Amino acid sequence: MNIEEQIQEYIDCLESNKKDGLLNLHLFIKALIPHANLWFLDGKDANGKVIANPNIGYGNLQLQYKDGSSKPFYQVGITAHS
Q1: What is the pTM of this model?
Q2: Is the pLDDT score of 41 beyond 70?
Q3: CA 50: distance to chain centroid?
């Protein structure tokens, strides 16, 4: 399943009051920055345990840690969690 399909599946599973708002915001951001890299984080760790809320990310950023390591991440993210 590609990222677009994962995002759509996430949005489709939401309650209707959250679904419409998140879908509209997602479409707005995609129209505003159409070439931004899309991310989807399901909120699960490597063992499948839920540790965070699912979120949709846009863009690219390199996170820098104190120990000198880094990892790619997104610039802007949204979630349906209230």
Answers
A1: 0.87
A2: yes
A3: 15
